[in-house]
Amino acid sequence: MPQSDDTVLRSLKANAGTPRIKPPRVVGIDDWSWLKGRRYGTVVVDLERRVVVDVLPARSAEATADWLSRHPEVEVVSRDRCGLYAQGAARAAPQARQAADRFHLMDNLRLTIEQQLGREQRGVEGGRTAHDPVTPATMAYYQGHGRQPELIHHRRLARSGRRAQWQVKFDRLKELQRAGRTASSIKYETGLHWKTITKWLPLDTLPERRAMAPKATTPAGFADYLAKRWAEGHKSARHLLPELQARGYAGSQTHLERLLGQWRRADHAGFLKDLAAGTTAIASPEVLPLPPIPAASLCIKPPKLLTDEQSAKVTQLKKASPSFATMRGLAMRFRGILRGKDPDRLDDWMDDAHSSGLYGIRRFVLTLRNDMAAVRNAISEPWSNGQFEGQINRLKTVKRSMYGRADTDLLRARLLPLHLPTL
User: Fold this and answer.
1) Which 3 state secondary structure label does DSSP give 30?
2) What number of CA atoms fall less than 13 Å from residue 383's CA on the CB side?
């Protein structure tokens, strides 16, 4: 071909902008990473024809609304639980039915069960257990500052439970070390990574988690300036955010509020004394047969897919934890509702889940109620974002084949179907 490579690329990009002969009726929206953890884009797929419709450079409600406003023919929008896509679809396509993705619904339930089981791994200290309520003084303090005491208590117990799991592994490693076992045999028996074993062998106590090194997107890098303003009485993240941005801060207000919240709780240590006594101490935990992560995966797995070994573990978990048995029953019912195409059964399930007495499950029910229309459509509609994994895998392969230097136009040109002119 006598044309240059620039001419070929320019022609491909122009061809990618050619509209489809038949506009999409059912679309799925999901994100993909330009740079993992920092920058994301959006892919729009025609779920009926299983082809990519468009590639957007950003993951935002504005970008989603702008695309949908140019495609009023869309009747169904399938999405994950991301609130940005829900906001964009509600703003620009009120005529379209939103459907939550069934896989993400089950994954959200699995994560909820994992956090709830993590609380049970915490153990007992001085007669207090992971199910102890928040103290009245702490309740009054948090309510007075617009906070949710039960949610904060739940997260603290989950963090404490995770540390208790590591404490059990650390104690096992030291026991094997005192018995004269080699590092290789310790790795074989505990399953720990060799780097972790190398770090723990010379230690006498379990080390604290190391904080992430400060950078432009974390407010900890501006701790000196924030401490000065805090001492002067300026404690509002909304007012401090413009000052930090002028000094180079590139993070969000949420991250700043999280840091200031830690300082605020430290200032009111008297209110938090009883709560800290029940959540930060690590004692002999009531160890479940499995850690919360694999236990949660088994909890949502249907009986027909369990191996004999996994079935035995599920039985042990039911005996060791009454809450696991409760969550197992709820998870199986929820899976059956998603596959049964009967959204009317969802209301009874949510009532039973809310009355289970498990805080994590009650939070999950609350999130379902906030997105009720999309959850009901997920049950009644046949569409899902399952094919997205293949499309995103293809996008990542194309992006890496160009060493990550492709812009949005070129990615769109390589992913969208080629439209040849009629001769």
Assistant:
1) strand
2) 26
Could you tell me the pTM of the whole model? 0.64
- Looking at residue 386, the DSSP 8-state letter turns out to be T
**Which amino acid, one-letter code, is at 49?**
R
The DSSP code for 125 is B
**79, β-bridge pairs:** 29, 100
407's tokens: 């812009």
Pairing of strands 51-56, 39-46: antiparallel
Measured between alpha carbons, how far is 236 from 240 in angstroms, rounded to an integer? 6
CB atoms within 10 A of CB 32: 20
Q: Which of 65, 163, 75 is nearest to 122 (CA)?
A: 163
d(CA 208, CA 119): 19
Lowest mean pLDDT among 7-11, 12-16, 199-203, 390-394: 12-16
Q: Where in the chain is the domain with CATH 3.30.420.10?
A: 14-101+384-415
Rounded to whole angstroms, the Cα distance separating 196 from 201 reads: 9
CATH assignment, 14-101+384-415: 3.30.420.10
CA distance 410 to 358: 49
Whether residue 417 contacts residue 21, with contact meaning beta carbons closer than 8 Å, is answered with no
What pLDDT does residue 284 have? Answer: 38
Residue 184, SS3?
Answer: helix
Instruction: Output the average pLDDT for the chain.
Output: 79
- Whether 19 has a pLDDT exceeding 70, the answer reads no
Nearest Cα to Cα of residue 346 among 378, 377, 376, 384? 376
25 to each of 64, 227, 391, how far by Cα in Å?
A: 16, 54, 18
Tokens 């994954």, residue? 107
User: How many Å apart are CA 265 and CA 261, to the nearest integer?
Assistant: 6
